[in-house]
Target: Tyrosine-type recombinase/integrase
Amino acid sequence: MAKGVRTGTSFHKSDATYLRNTQEMIARKTHNGEITPQDAGLLREYLAEITAESGISAVRQYKIAIQIVGLRRFLPPFAGATAGDLYTAVNKIRAATGEDSAPLFKQNTVSDMVRFLRRFYLWMIENGYSAIPEAKVKKIKPPAYQRMTKTAEELLTEDEIRAMLEAARTPKDRALLATLYESGCRIGELGTLTWGQVKFTNWNVTLNVDGKTQKPRYVPLVIARPYLAAWKAAYPKKITPEAHVFLTATTQQPLQYAGVVKQFRVIAQRAGVKKHINPHLFRHSRITHLIQQGMPESVIKLMMWGSLNTGMFQTYAHLTNRDIDTAMAKLTGVTTEEEERSVALEAKQCPRCHSVNGPTYHFCATCGLALDQDAEIELRGAQEATDEYYIKKILTNPAMLEKLTRTLQNITEASGSTRT
Model:
């Protein structure tokens, strides 16, 4: 896929919808002349065979169909292409540029396109639809995937995430931001999350999701719990196990990708966060923060991928020069000035009632106790202002002053008679 934000993407399409969209797209491209009827027939047969053999999902079929149709921008009709045509197509894909002369495709997109081209033509050769020697196609090597797609500097810091939480103006936005970051979920997993997948305990909340990998994941959340609880209390519909947790603000319908991106960027701008924001950046940032904070790799893999055997861990291990310096100093026995760990996203547990509150909470949501020094100062100022208000009101009201004087006299007399 070329650079840019996906627009209008839904998290809620059924398999039947994706299958229908695949066939409609093939028919539309045929009608427009972008592919030939023979191309369309080959593509449909290819999809049917790999689905029967590998059981690929409807979403995957749709992606494959789009990619293979897209190859026709660089190839003649599929069945008539020569080995030279394939080589030329690969070179054109690698060298394609946009209007600004920047590469049209990201490195991983180029790798995907070349892989699809290679697999499709190996299938055509196997089935007698292409006369290209198999050895020629096997010589085509896709570029390696770029595992590190973000630099450490592009990731969000805990302070920036806190700033966005403070800048969010609705319970839903705060809950979505906190949950997306702390869970490390893909936005599609939260877009389809239902209340039946959410379980509250007295100190945390757990999500059970399977998402992209179709592997169940157990994800415990502490920071996000109070924000999710607040959103649940304000939820505009009847809560059932099948109801989607996150809804749009105006129509109260399930989220759309483009709407989430737009809202996050508005909140980021309000918070003074200058970085390019997209929902997946929160996953990148969270995994890197967990690594930096020393969480065991096996726990991160189970929480984020549902498997100890994932090969994706290194893609998200964004370490800074500071991390490297710290590790080297520790290895060589050198004592350095330790950098204070950020507490911007630490949950606040109330010392009185022990409820867990969010990092942006200043007063306990359960019992109202001040949770930090600023809150204590604010509360003390409010009490002093209240006292001053009533003292002035009493002193300027003779009747009220007389009543207060009598009340105090009665209390004094009653106290004296009790002692005797």
In short: The chain is about 50% helix and 5% strand. Residues 1-9 have pLDDT under 50 and may be disordered.
